[in-house]
Amino acid sequence: MMCIRKPCSILLLATYLKISARTEFTNFKCMSLDKEFSDFEYCTLKAVNRSYKYISTKVKLFQVPVTKVKVNFGLYKRFSGYRPFLYNVTVDACNFLKNKKRNPIASYFYDFIKDISNMNHTCPFDHDLVWDKLSTEHINHRVTNILSFPEGDYMMEMHWIAYDIVRAVVKIYVTLS
Q1: Would 5 be classed as within a structural domain?
Q2: For the chain, which end, N or C, has fewer CB atoms within 10 Å of the first or last residue's CB respectively?
Q3: What Å distances lie between residue 110 and 5, 49, 101, 104, CA to CA?
Q4: Structural contact between residues 142 and 111, judged by C-beta atoms closer than 8 angstroms
Q5: The domain that contains 154 carries what CATH number?
Q6: CA 68 → CA 46, 99, 116, 139, distances in Å?
Q7: What CA–CA distance (Å, rounded) separates 15 from 12?
Q8: pLDDT of 134 higher than 50
């Protein structure tokens, strides 16, 4: 089949070119609010080269086993400061890990860390918690191919709650361009 008209040639060009967004970590902050319960051994944002960055963290738990955990996560977009954007959800982590299909929003965000974390089983947690090398490539795939987000600066803020007390706050800053 031959394309003679411009719209047809643009369509063919679009099928050969892959247009995708680019994500970049801009900051990663971890704060323990109860150092007798848990503390961060490390919380790092590492740039291997210009195009490959990742974040890693390790939380030391001092009062194990932990049998009651909730996570409040909110997504914020920068508009003259960070403002709420789409999601602010609190999930009972122990129940969620028993049946991930019950909460599709939590499942979408859990899929960011499930392959790089040891938080892949139900309660109790009787070991240190680790995220190992969450890369911008993994984030890029999820925010462009799975569920598209508009360009901008974003912050994911997570409040980790054990026994109904906020124990830690983690903030991940990302630019999507």
Answers
A1: no
A2: N
A3: 46, 27, 11, 10
A4: yes
A5: 2.70.220
A6: 32, 16, 22, 28
A7: 5
A8: yes
pTM of the predicted structure, to 2 decimals? 0.81
DSSP result, the chain: ----SHHHHHHHHHHHS-----EEEEEEEEEES-TTTEEEEEEEEEESSSS-EEEEEEEEESS--B--EEEEEEEEEESSSEEEEEEEEEEEHHHHHH-GGG-HHHHHHHHHHTTTBS--SPSPB-S-EEEEEEEHHHHHHIIIIIS---SEEEEEEEEEEETTEEEEEEEEEEEE-
Residue numbers of the domain that contains 27: 21-176
pLDDT, tens digit (0-9, with 9 covering 90-100), for 34-74: 999 999 999 999 988 877 889 999 999 999 999 999 999 99
Q: Is 4 exposed, middle or buried (0-12, 13-18, 19+ CB in 10 A)?
A: exposed
Tokens 């969620």 identify what position? Answer: 96
Task: Tell me if 107 is assigned to some domain.
Answer: yes
Q: How many residues does the chain have?
A: 177
Residue 66, Cβ neighbours under 10 Å: how many?
A: 21
| Paired tokens of 131 | 């995220």
Give domain status of residue 86, yes or no.
yes
